[in-house]
C-alpha cells in the first residue's frame, strides 16, 4: 500500500543496536514511511529499548512500537535465561547468546504488522560478516524467509510480494559504521553490549562489544558508546 | 533431545479447536512427550484457551503453556480488530477472518520453544481441504516453514533437523472427526466458532461453524458442541 501522500511504507526491526540503527537510516533515506518494531522479550537489559525509542524519535515519519513477548518462558539462551554471557573472545561455533529462532519470531511479527499496514518491504539489520555466527543472520536464511513470507500471506499469494531487505548483510562492521556516519547515524544512541551495567555502559568484553570496538577501529572512528572503566579489550 | 526416560519430545500448537485437538491425540499416540502451546493473542474470545487447557489436561505427559502476544496492536483481521465476522457462508477467496501471518508467528514461537527443549518435531493441525482458504494452511507453506526452520536454528544447521508434522493437512473435516473419535477425542471440549457467545456457544453461521457442522454430518456423528438456539444453518 502506498500512503495517501504516495509514500511507500516499510517495517523495520529496530533493536537499538548499531546495525539496526544504520539500517533504519538507510531505509529512511530510501523514502519509506517507516514502522519500527522492537521487542520486550525478556532480554537482560531494557537499555536497548530506550536506545531504539530515541533512534526512532530522531527521524520524521517513523512510528515505533514495542511488543511484549516473553521468550524467557522458553529459555535456552544466555540472553534470556540464567546462563553467563561469555567474555573471553569471539569463538567459532554458535555461542550461548544465540536465542532459539529469535529472528524468525521477530521477522514473523514484522510480516504480520507489514501485511496489516499494507507494507511490502521489511528491513532487518542482520550482518553475516562481523557477527556472532547466528544461523538466522545468513543470506540463505533471509532468502528462505522471503520465500515463506510470500507463501504465508494473503498479499503474497495474491501477487503483492513481500521483500526482505538486509542492506548490511555483506558489509564488514567497519563498512557499516562508515556508511552510518556518512548518513548521520548518532552511534551514541546505540547499544551493543550483551551485558551492560545499570547505566547502560558496555562491558567491553562480550562478543558484541568486541565486534563493535573492532568495527570502529576499522572505520577509523571513535566509538561514542560508554564502557565500564578498565573493561575494554583494546579492540 | 530424548528425555531422560527415552521419550522423544514434540511441540504442538493447540488452539482449542477441533483440528488441533485431533492432532494432539495423534501425536500423543505416537509416543511423544508433548509441549502444547497456545496464544492469548487478542482473539475475540478466551473460550478457546479454556478448551485448550482442558484438552491438554486430559492426557498424561502434556505440558501446556499459554503465551501472551498482543496481535491486536497490528490489527488487520476480523478476529483481532473491530471488523464483523462474516456469517453468510464459506466463500472462495481469503476471508476477513484471516489474521496476517498468524501461523508463521505461531510456528516460529513453537520452533523457539522446541529448540530450547531439545525437541525436533513440531505438530500443527492445519488442514487444506475443508478450511477457510488461509494461505498458511497449505502443504507448500508447511514445507517452506520446515526449510526455514532448518536454516534458522543452531540445531538445524548442526544436522539435528526439525520436522513440521501436519497430519490433518490432506484430510476432509469428516475424516478428521472420524479419526479423532476413534482415538477418543472429546470434541465437547473443543470450540470452532469465530464469534461464540458469552457461554462459549457457537453461532452456527460463521465459516468455522459451517465447516465443523458439515464435518460431523460427513462423519455421521453428532456434534457435542453447544450452539446458540435457532442459529444452525442445518449444516
TrEMBL record, chains A, B:
GO molecular function terms listed in the Swiss-Prot or TrEMBL record: ATP binding; ligase activity, forming carbon-nitrogen bonds; zinc ion binding
Binding site for ATP: 14-24
Pathway terms, separated by semicolons: Purine metabolism; 7-cyano-7-deazaguanine biosynthesis
Keywords attached to this entry: ATP-binding, Ligase, Metal-binding, Nucleotide-binding, Queuosine biosynthesis, Zinc
Cofactor mode of binding and number, as noted: Binds 1 zinc ion per subunit.
EC class: ligase
Positions in coiled-coil regions: none
The protein's required cofactors: Zn(2+)
Reactions accelerated catalytically: 7-carboxy-7-carbaguanine + NH4(+) + 2 ATP = 7-cyano-7-carbaguanine + 2 AMP + 2 diphosphate + 2 H(+)
The protein's Enzyme Commission number: 6.3.4.20
Top-rank lineage group of the source organism: Bacteria
Functional summary from the UniProt entry: Catalyzes the ATP-dependent conversion of 7-carboxy-7-deazaguanine (CDG) to 7-cyano-7-deazaguanine (preQ(0)).
Family named by the database record: Belongs to the QueC family.
Protein name in UniProt: 7-cyano-7-deazaguanine synthase
Organism: Magnetofaba australis IT-1
Amino acid at each position: 500500500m502506498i500512503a495517501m501522500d504516495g509514500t511507500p511504507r516499510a517495517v523495520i526491526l529496530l533493536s537499538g543496536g548499531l546495525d539496526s540503527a544504520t539500517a533504519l537510516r538507510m531505509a529512511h533515506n530510501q523514502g519509506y514511511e517507516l514502522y519500527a518494531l522492537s521487542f520486550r522479550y525478556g532480554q537482560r537489559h531494557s537499555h536497548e529499548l530506550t536506545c531504539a525509542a530515541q533512534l526512532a524519535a530522531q527521524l520524521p515519519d517513523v512510528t515505533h512500537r514495542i511488543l511484549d513477548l516473553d521468550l524467557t518462558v522458553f529459555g535456552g539462551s544466555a540472553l534470556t535465561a540464567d546462563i553467563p554471557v561469555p567474555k573471553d573472545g569471539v569463538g567459532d561455533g554458535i555461542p550461548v547468546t544465540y536465542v532459539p529462532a529469535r529472528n524468525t519470531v521477530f521477522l514473523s511479527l514484522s510480516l504480520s504488522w507489514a501485511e496489516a499496514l499494507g507494507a511490502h518491504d521489511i528491513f532487518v539489520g542482520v550482518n553475516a560478516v562481523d557477527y556472532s555466527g547466528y544461523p538466522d543472520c545468513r543470506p540463505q536464511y533471509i532468502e528462505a524467509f522471503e520465500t515463506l513470507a510470500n507463501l504465508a500471506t494473503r498479499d503474497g499469494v495474491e501477487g503483492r510480494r513481500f521483500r526482505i531487505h538486509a542492506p548490511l548483510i555483506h558489509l564488514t562492521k567497519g563498512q557499516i559504521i562508515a556508511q552510518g556516519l556518512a548518513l548521520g547515524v548518532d552511534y551514541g544512541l546505540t547499544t551493543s553490549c550483551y551485558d551492560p551495567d545499570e547505566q547502560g555502559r558496555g562491558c567491553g568484553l562480550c562478543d558484541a562489544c568486541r565486534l563493535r570496538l573492532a568495527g570502529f577501529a576499522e572505520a577509523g572512528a571513535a566509538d561514542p558508546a560508554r564502557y565500564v572503566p578498565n573493561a575494554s579489550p583494546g579492540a
